[in-house]
Each structure stands twice: as C-alpha cells, then as structure tokens.
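Lab notebook, design round three. We kept the backbone fixed and only want residue identities now. Task for the bench partner: fill in a sequence for the structure below.
Input structure tokens:
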C-alpha cells in the first residue's frame, strides 16, 4: 500500500512540476495563457496535485524523517491544501462574480486578502521546510531538494522580473517525484527499507 501511495505521489509531483514548467515556458515563448479560467484551471490543477505529491515524497523517506521532517511535511500539506482552496475559488467563484458585476471580483475585501496571504505564506514556508528536510535526510537526491528550495526563493524575489524563474522550482519537484517512483521500484515488495538517521 505504501509503495502504491509513493508511486501516486511521485507521479503527482512529476505532473504538477511538468504543468508548472509548461506554463512558465509558455509565458516566456508566447506571452502566456490569457488570464481567466484556462490559466486558473492549470494553476488549480498544479496546487491540487501538490497535496498527494507531498504525501508521496514524505512516504518515500519516512523512515529517515524525524521530528523536523514530520513538522515540515505537515506545514507543506497544510499550505498546499490552502493554496488549492484559494486557486479553486479563483477558477470557480471569481468568474461568476465578474460576470455578475460584483465589486468583490476586483476587491475581495480584507478577509479575502488575509486568507490568500495566509495560504501563500503557509504554502511557501511548508515547501521550503520540506525541501530542507529532504536535503537533511539525504534519501531522495539532494540536488533536487536544493532546486526546490532555491527555485522558490528566487521565485519570491524575481518572479516579476525574470520570466520563467519558477522553472527551477518545478524541475526540482519533477526530479523528486521521479526519484521517489524509481526508489520504490528498486525495493522489493516487503523488502527492508534503509533506516537513515537525520544528521
């Protein structure tokens, strides 16, 4: 069962990262999708897939994860779930508000902004912590974890300045997902899993 969840989570990470790469490349090459349901749907799908992705990546290295890794995973799951909720609202509710001419379409109010900011902070903090935890336990490739963390940090600072900068984060996510799936294939069903001690 655990191997199946790791495979599903690894595949979700690959697809989520792949969608992000496609969107970033498309933004650079063709000016991106027109802002609206299409772009929002792609973003929502990425966020949805991050939830099983984080769970699968955690399971791939759970024996090495200790307190810090478990806390990082919980924050990453919470942040990814909250960001999915925000993205889902954007793709379902926002177009209806716009069509109805509601002022909430342009100004979601203090509560709406606060909820989005809290979701975004939890998402970024969770993935950063998870990337650091993955680096520390050294079960999945460290360079992939480094790309995840560095890509997020660069995206925070340069996303509006350097087009496609989030490709770095996305490549790290794809690499981690692929490595998790490959790792499950290398361990026979019911075979012993290496127990690693967190440095």
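Proposed sequence:
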């Amino acid at each position: 069962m655990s191997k199946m969840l790791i495979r599903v989570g690894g595949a979700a990470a690959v697809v989520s990262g792949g969608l992000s790469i496609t969107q970033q490349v498309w933004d650079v090459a063709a000016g991106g999708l027109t802002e609206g349901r299409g772009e929002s749907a792609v973003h929502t799908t990425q966020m949805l897939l991050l939830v099983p992705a984080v769970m699968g990546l955690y399971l791939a290295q759970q024996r090495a994860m200790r307190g810090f890794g478990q806390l990082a995973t919980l924050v990453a799951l919470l942040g990814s779930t909250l960001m999915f909720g925000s993205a889902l609202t954007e793709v379902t509710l926002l177009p209806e508000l716009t069509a109805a001419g509601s002022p909430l379409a342009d100004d979601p109010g203090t509560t709406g902004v606060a909820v989005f900011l809290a979701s975004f902070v939890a998402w970024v903090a969770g993935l950063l912590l998870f990337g650091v935890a993955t680096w520390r336990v050294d079960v999945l490739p460290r360079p992939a974890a480094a790309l995840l963390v560095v890509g997020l940090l660069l995206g925070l600072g340069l996303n509006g300045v350097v087009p496609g900068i989030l490709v770095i984060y996305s490549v790290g996510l794809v690499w981690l997902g692929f490595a998790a799936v490959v790792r499950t294939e290398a361990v026979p069903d019911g075979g012993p899993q290496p127990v690693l001690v967190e440095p």
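Keep this in mind before ordering anything: The first helix runs from residue 2 to 30.
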